[in-house]
Amino acid sequence: MSVQVISNTCTGCxxxxxxxxxxxxxxxxxxAFITESCTLCGACIEACEFKAIERTGEEAVAAAKDLxxxxxxxxxxxxxxxxxxSVTLELLGEGRKLADKRQTKLSAVFxxxxxxxxxxxxxxxxxxxxxxxxxxALKDFNDDSYSAVLTTLATLHxxxxxLAGATAIGRSFIPKVAAKLxxxxxxxxxxxxxxxxxxxxxxxRPAFGGNIMATIVSPNHRPQMATVRHKVMKPAPRNDARxxxxxxxxxxxxxxxxxxxxxxxxxxxxxxxxxxANIIVAGGRGMGGVKNFHLLEELAKVLGGxxxxxxxxxxxGWIPYSHQVGQxxxxxxxxxxxxxxxxxxxxxxxxxxxxxVIVAINKDxxxxxxxxxxYGIVGDVLEVLPVMIKKFKEIRG
Amino acid sequence: xxxxxxxxxxxxxxxxxxxRETNTLIRDGVPSIINPFDMFAIEExxxxxxxxxxxxxxxxxxxxxxxxxxxxxxxxGVDEVVLLSDRAFAGADTWATSYTLAxxxxxxxxxxxxxxxxxxxxxxxxxxxxxxxxxxxxPFIAYIKKIEAxxxxxxxxERMMDDxxxxxxxxxxxxxxxxxxxxxxxxxxxxxxxxxKNLKVTTLTAKDINADENLLGLKGSPTKVVRxxxxxxxxxxxILSGTIEQQVDQVVKKLKEQSLV
Lengths: 397, 261
Known about the structure:
By secondary structure, chain A is an alpha/beta fold. Chain A has helices at about 15-20, 45, 85-100, 120-125, 145-155, 170-180, 295-305, 310-315, 345-350, 380-395, and strands at about 1-5, 25-30, 30-35, 55, 75, 80, 85, 105-110, 130-135, 160-165, 185-190, 190-195, 200-205, 210-215, 225-230, 245-250, 260-265, 280-285, 305-310, 335-340, 355-360, 375-380. Chain B is about 30% helix and about 30% strand. Classes of the chains: A alpha/beta, B alpha/beta.
């Protein structure tokens, strides 16, 4: 299989050369030439106005499965100690839309211990069916047991689509399910859409540190699996009048228990998980030291938000790594991100540039953070923050 | 103990810029580096070898030039390297990549632990670790920030979660992915650099790893990329001026208007 230039049709316009995300096209003798660096992504095929690039040998891919046997949209309903995660409601909201478009049912897979009384909440938020696996052995998150439950159910009921949150848990065990089912999985999606004809799920996600977006499909495999980023999809509204079916699933341990959680330590204390926060107040090296971080905490408290930090501030030991936003930390997309004393290194920007509104405070008017900021305040962050805290306190009463 | 480290050669995405006129990636002069998260995996493997003895083998799948990444691992102190390279591997998604890596690892003989970085900075999927573990049939634990103990065919590790961390016990062999907090990677040594310079990298092809060609590369990949495009540009931006009081007033007003606060 390869991507090839049809020499006679190529006009030498060079559009494909700049369209190639991998730098794999050169001009040779006035015609495009695809080099060894080609990853067969097909970006050039779409870019070529003259249909002078084609993928060859694709017919060799046999349709591996009977796709029509797969029906319904599923979401993995994540919970922590019985509390349904906010991302679960977002998945139900998105899943409902996809199920309605495809005129099919929305089901939730709910795994844990002592969670039975919460299953009806999933129905109130849009699920038609809840597969409930409630067992003492499922108390803690375990890659083996969680993937076993979901794989078994998916093999039995053949859903067309499975969605999960791109959380620590989702991103850890969902790939194991995809591996077992030999199907496609797209990580960290921000846009989902379904082709009503083929049922192909168009999954769009950022790559290259948010520098490009890619749309991905799994045309010949089912179920189509995706993890979805927090805070991007709209949460499903609650409607207690909704009815649905709760199906209890028995969990049986097969084989040895290979991994077990000995202890769970909560680190963030009173502050919320930054991935789930609607408002984030983040500090960088410009905060000048750990002694000034109380300003961030105070502002976050007034706004009901969470405190985050850059790699620089974490490396200085001002705040634990679990608060780090950026390439080597977490990716967040809150409604409001207030960047305090952050210069805006690209590694940091990669982790926060999808925030709805960004307010940047920096004394250097040329700081790169201002190029992604919705509103920029030029001034010393240590002078700005007390004023800001005061003003917000006034309006929030 | 025998430790395998999975590495990936990636473009330094912090160097990738967008041409605002054509909305495409500018890749000219963008250097290839070892995926930064893999550096923590290499370091942890070397530390475990220093404590427990044994050897560290770095494995990558990639084009012939990925041998450079493997040489860098040798400069850091890795004992052996294996490059999985074949035209048939091209275009692999995470499933087909994991299949290839798992087939390659099975060729290497007995091992106690496989370590990989949490994710690669180009694809950011974090899927190849867990998928490879599954295909090898060994336990998988993600986001390890500390290995507390390894003894008697078992290990105890600290796994980062969204709201804290878990202490997890696992049987060996296992596959773990590690986060930045686990260590500070060492620099290459002079001795290591000399060894790397003269190293001939072992290359294994699809045939060498007994791979089913239907499961390799683009052909074996369930997912297909159908479109690549630049992200929507951020909306109007506004750099304010005036006294701090005035600037803050303006921002507070605008955020209030948008019901953000």
